Structures are given as structure tokens and as C-alpha cells.
Amino acid sequence: MERFELAVKAITRAGAALRASRVKNGDVQFKTGYKDLVTYWDKYTEQLLRDEILTAFPNDVIVGEEYPPSGIGKLTWYIDPIDGTTNFVNQHRNYAVSIGCWDGDKPVFGLVLDVEREAMYWAKTNEGAWCNNTRLHVTQRTDLHDMLLTTPGVQYTFLDQNDWREQLIKLARTVRGVRCLGSVALELCEVASGEADLFVTLRSSPWDHNAARIILSEAGGAICTVTGASLSINEKSTVLAANSVENLNGVLSLLSD
Question: How confident is the chain (257 residues) per 10-residue block, as mean pLDDT?
Fold first, then answer.
């Protein structure tokens, strides 16, 4: 079985388990505080995915959110078992399972499953981006005043004190509207599918964005950090995305004023 086929099988199985799950007392724990959650199902899902991958490809590297990295091979899988854990706990919707596969610094494929909608966003390098069987394309908007900006965390992006607060508030006042879904992977897929035009977050980990960034790129979008630097494969970082390189540069110019 090829890696992509295995990933589809594994993420589909994980999604079915999560849809059938119910969060019980004692399932939820705090990492760094009451806003930073981990559940029994985060750990269960990541272990399920790790077991499937390593059984078939024991030398591949796995980098996930809940367990230390493993493996010594050339290909690396980036796994987020539940992207949007707060949504999973409070809403039981608007959360995703994310799997990205990279050959060194070269993307191979990415999958993001919107679990409750059973919407599978996926892309292979140079083969386009898709949601289930529908081809994805970013919007063609060019005027910031017409654009929709999405961010996974209104509080830490616009309300909490940070080095970018003033510039990001300026951006929010420039665009048509701001939306918050609460999932890095799903919001990057919203840009890829034309449901939003821009995305920003001040904190993201490789497992949050390394699958969705492949989908965004294959749909015609562009991505970097809020400083304009290339997005790292293995480091936590800020993330800025847009429906085109030109619009990404336009936002970067606004943020630097």
C-alpha cells in the first residue's frame, strides 16, 4: 500500500472513531492552562495513526502533537490528531484530523479531515487540491476591502498584548470582515477552497499547518510568516496566508507600515 492510500485509510478510520466519541468526565486535561486542552481522544487518535503508519513504514519519521518524534527515515509525517480540541470538547464540531507527509523539505501530500462534515481536503504535489471529489481554487479577489480574514484565535491575535497587535487590528479594520473557526488546518483550507481570502495566526506548530499548507499551495494560495520569512517545516511560528503571492505581499506591506 502506498503512503497516500494508507493515510486516507487511517484518517478515515480516525474520523469515524471521533464522530462516535463522547467526551466524559476525566477525559479532559490542561496542558499550560484552562485554555490549552488535551483529551483522551487526542492521544488515542494520534496513537492509532502512528500504529497504522509505522506498521507499514517502520523507518518513517513521525512528528505529532501528543508524543515525542519517532523514526530515523527520510520521509516525515506531521500529525495533528485533533486540530481544534476546544471545539471538539465544547461543540463536537469544527475540528479536524491533519496528516502531512514531507520528503525532507519537499511536500509529498497533505490531508485534512473536517471530521463532523466528513469533508476530506487533500492534495498531492503538482496534482491540485481537492475536497472529496471537488477541485479547490482560491478566490481571485485583489482588493483588501473585499476580503474575508480568518484567524483561529481572536483573543491572542487581537485582544492580548503582542508585538503585532496594532498592525493586525489595522488589517482587521481594512478587510471586509474577520471570522474565527478555531482550527489552523481548517482555516487554511477555507482559504484554499475560496471561503476566505486571508489567514493569520501568531502561533502555530508544524503539525497544525504542514498538511494544510500543501493544500493551500496546490489551490493557488501563498503562505509565509508575518515577517515575510519562509515558513519553517519543523519550528513553531506565526503564519500568514493569502489567495495569491501579490496579496500576501500587500498584507506584508500593510503590516510593516
Answer: 95 98 87 86 97 95 94 92 96 97 97 98 98 98 98 93 96 97 98 98 97 98 98 96 98 95
> Do 151 and 227 reside in the same domain of the chain?
yes
Instruction: Report H helices in the chain.
Output: 3-20, 40-56, 85-90, 154, 165-174, 184-193, 206-209, 212-218, 245-256
> Domain residues for 115?
3-135
Q: Given 106, 135, 164, which residue is the final one in a domain?
A: 135
- Burial 227-243, CB ≥16 within 10 A → b, else e: eeeebebeeebbbbbbb
CA distance 247 to 138: 12
Cβ-Cβ contacts under 8 Å for 88 (sequence gap 6 or more):
18, 23, 39, 41, 82, 95
For residues 125 and 149, membership in a common domain is answered with no
78/53 Cα distance (integer angstroms): 11
179-194 pLDDT, tens digit each: 999 999 999 999 999 9
What's the Cα-to-Cα distance from 131 to each of 105, 112, 117, 123, 136, rounded to whole Å? Answer: 24, 9, 11, 9, 7
